[in-house]
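User: Structure please.
Assistant: Input sequence and predicted structure:
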Amino acid sequence: MKKKIIIFISIAAVLLLAFALQKINNKSSDSSEIYTEVSKGLFKIEVTASGELDAKNSVEIMGPDGLRTAQIWQVKVDHIVEEGTVVEKGGYIARLDQSELGDKIQKKQTDLQQTMSQFTQAKLDTALELRKARDELINQKYDIEEKEIILQQSQFEPPAEIKKAEINVEKARRTYNQSQENYRLQKEKALAEVEEAAAKMMNDKNQLTFLQGLAQKFTVTAPEPGMVIYRRNWRGQKQGVGSTLSPWDPVVAKLPDLSKMVSKTYINEVDINTVKIDQKVEIGLDAFPEKKLTGKVIEVANVGEQKPNSDAKVFQLLIEINESDTTLRPGMTTSNTIISGEIEDVLFVPVEALHSQGDSISYVYKKEGIGISKQEVFLGQSNSDEVIILKGLEEHDVVYLSDPDGVTDKKINRLEGSPDQLAAQN
């Protein structure tokens, strides 16, 4: 009898231990399930995107404006002050590489020396040639006078001798007249040659003066006081030392007006229809998480662009920041939440609670007392975190955010009608 009692007590202890272990396992299983209540109230339709601060207005610091005239198609930045440096008007900003310009100046100096020599030579040649021509004219004039004396002395000579003397005088006069005309033409030609040589010399001189003046502009200074911000290329890379300028776009850096800032951001093409100008924006700063700013959309790109190393199309937005804060700096990363709409007094749940069957049926796991059901829901608009429930749930209903065990094969409780019909009724 005593032995039976001991056996009975042992069996009971084993059963109690098994029951306790099962309870512990059930509690452990329940603790891994996450659920939440259906909320009701104001629902914000939001689009979130990260952006980068920039000044709404800024002054561009330009490089030399005569590069095309000098036929210099690329200039390297040898040195530039550190980004963020505060400069006064006329203060030093950058120094550009003058290697190519120096070669052009040296060549033009050589050209000028040659054209100056040619100009001097042309003047000397002209002086010598015209002097020689004038001497010939004087000699020809003496020859006329001499032949006229012979004609006068031949008055008592036979007619043939007189005629011969007359012909000699006429020939001398004609030669003299032709020489005068030749002298005039020769003088005009000589003057033209001198003027041409002078023009070449002045052209080389002007070009040399231009190049020397251009060389002074290779030391870039600030047109206004402000903080220097490096320019970025089309890839978003900062253009500092070693970057190049072109004659068509000779911007070295920028001096932003920090009193009015914007956030430049990009949104996916699927969200572009929900974003409009003047929509409110909530802005956070990665550098100062505790600082909260507000703004509004002031510009929406009409044309999308390709993201680098991606097939995604994005559209650029400009968001003007309402507050003026001395801590704001260009290049800071912002988190932008665009409020594209607000709907009052609606039900909504986290997007994590939603599941789908096929392309048309959405459902949630709903807590029903001690059980769980798969409940179809009709969905309204959504944001990045939550979605509106048009039908299928009530306020304070409990839905699971994680998949509960053992209900995957349950049948979905379907709703009458369709989301489109419900939307049409509303």
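Helices lie at 2-31, 99-153, 159-216, 419-425.
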